[in-house]
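Morning run. Coffee first, then this:
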Amino acid sequence: MGRGTRLIPASPSPCPSGGGLGWGQARRRFLLAAGALALPSLHAQSRLDQLPPGTRLPAWEALDFDGKSVAIPLAGKPTVVNFWATWCVPCRTEMPLLQQMAEFYSDRLVLQAVNYKERAASVQRHVRNANWTVPVLLDPMGAGAQAWGVKVFPTTIGFDAQGQARWRLVGEYDWTSAEAGKLVEGLWR
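And here it is:
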């Protein structure tokens, strides 16, 4: 990231914790609040590909900041895998929205934010300075991105609990939109 560039920290999740709201009411409130803040241009900069039923991508392992291997995608729970880089402006714009989505669906979904080919110390510093709380993993040699044919950043792939890839989204996207809610919720149907 260049000198003088400042990132605006993501605001807390608009989803109330408890407060007596049911799932549907909380979801509607989240989507309405998010819609008021949504950036409509984000949809114009992305391409969504629905993948054929039963699509499997080769499983691989990324590294966490402690050097431990983590399975990609995570088995047994719907998972959204996002490939990003610190030098990618659309990635930096999208990540706070992806973080809000992950917080909202935290009990039903796993987000794996996979950094592409950057040093762990640089990525860790960037994540800390940006106040991101998403779980960040490393693809230090780019092997995972290559195995899945990722050539544009950000690229996000949604997996159901059985590990089948359902969709691939290339480019920046508004993860707080109603369309994003339908896309993500489709992973557990």
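The chain has one domain: 23-188. Good start to the day.
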